Amino acid sequence: MQTGTTLSWFRRLRVASFALITAIGAVGLLSASARVATGEGNDVELGPLSSVAVPMPIGGDIVDQAAAVRLGKALFWDIQLGGDGQTACATCHFHGGADNRPAINPGLDKLFGTADDVHGSMGLTVAQGTFKNIDPNPDNAADICTTGALNLFGVAPQVTTRNAPTTVNGVAFFRQMFWDGRGNDNFNGASPFGQTANNTAAQKASAAFSTAGIGNSALASQAVGPANKFPEVSCNGRTFGNLYDKLMARKALQHQFVHQQDSALGAMSAWPAKGLKCGTDGHACGYGELIAAAFGPSLAVKGQFSRVFGQAVQAYESTLIPDQTPLDRLMAGNSKAMTDLQKKGLSVFRGKGGCTKCHAGPELTDASVTFAGVFGLINEDGGDQGFHNIGVRPTIEDLGRAGTGGANVAPFSVSGSIMDHGAFKTPALRNVGLTAPYFHTGGKATLADVVDFYSRGGDFPNTEKARRIRPLGLSAADKAALVEFLANGLTDCRTAKDEAPFDHPSLTVPNGGPDLPATGGGTSCQ
């Protein structure tokens, strides 16, 4: 366990590392010799997550942070976002921030029931179609779409090609977002792709697009990706201009309940009615006034909505910090915070398991802003920092970090290394016991399966597989302890109980999902 002196040193290192981010951006990638000099590839000491400052956006348009959090939470949970009138951002992130509904995508071979099937996330509840118009009746949440040729799923709900990552493992600390990192840390206001060549002509021509961008804003870049994308949230062809028109004509969260003790929205709750109330007269809140409160009237306009949407959702998701796990309390000095079995599991995690090579530092990931600041943008294999091919599936099935997007021009890879082929971002691990199934394929159903996977050194001997992935020879006792640590030593009870800041409006999750009641308030994990 850390001493007070060690923890103080670590905090100073973390604060100093933020200053390095700008320098790295200015001078480019660190050389191999520089990485060796900084100890790249070595463990970064664990610590409480509260010892790390949440990366703040560099630039941006928010004039009232609390108002931006309220707007972002409403947008994230509102089912009116969905082209089917049922799918909110939260619909793929409702269970520990992830999606545990049974959902199979047939994978690269497009054949169900074969080895490359992916446990993806449920998308739209309707068949493939093209956006036609916003329903003129503001009481209706669904868009008007025309049905096109049926795809692999026919009239059944759509399923994404990857397992939805959780939003409650400390996503604010990631340098880039999505499994492949296409959610760039420099938010351009219009797309996930920052200033890379993947931006389409339409995205670059958008009034919201900025070549300067907003730094430390991968969450904003991520948020604008699925919002109008099929099959995640919308029928094909909807734009942010269309979405703006839809939401401006409707009251915020008008089909959902908001708890009176909701940590962000409680003061505006219209309980026992649905939705939110605004002003001294208690009228139903419109999105226009929520935007104006957060960004001022100049951004409450149609042409800026993608820029507003991304920053608002980022403001909300940046409040979801799971820093009250047993591990966090142990690292802060409470020797009784974890059981003996969990402590044994932590010992395996740090030692024989070698887990902290990738799940490093208080953030438990080498894909964090501060890890890149200390160790550079290139990892020990020559690929991008925080992204590794670990042999989950053959590389050819999903290029991951080496893939492209948008205009399909430039790989997301910064290094250009072959090692980025089939490489995926190292997830942070807090609340991992709540977020099955695991990996980008959703191919492991339990944490025991995950531990077995790492113990045998992965499943596929890909040429690009990271050198760190090798047989570990864990005993049955080692595995049991490690599973217990992961499942319970890293769970923030506020997340498990949907307590603040992880409380939320009510949500009916379609296609096998539950009816979530509105939650609010709660107690700490102490």
What does this structure look like?
The chain has helices at 4-27, 32-37, 65-77, 201-205, 218-223, 240-248, 287-295, 305-317, 326-331, 340-350, 369-375, 447-455, 476-489, 493-496, and strands at 104-105, 118-119, 129-133, 144-147, 277-278, 283-284, 387-388, 424-425, 507-508, 515-516. It has 14 helices and ten strands. It has two domains: 4-53 and 323-491, Orthogonal Bundle (Cytochrome Bc1 Complex, Chain D, domain 2); 65-163 and 227-318 and 499-516, no CATH class. The two termini are 18 Å apart. β5 (277-278) and β6 (283-284) form a beta hairpin.
Describe the secondary structure blueprint for this structure.
Elements (H helix, E strand, L loop, with lengths): L3 H24 L4 H6 L27 H13 L26 E2 L12 E2 L9 E5 L10 E4 L53 H5 L12 H6 L16 H9 L28 E2 L4 E2 L2 H9 L9 H13 L8 H6 L8 H11 L18 H7 L11 E2 L35 E2 L21 H9 L20 H14 L3 H4 L10 E2 L6 E2 L10
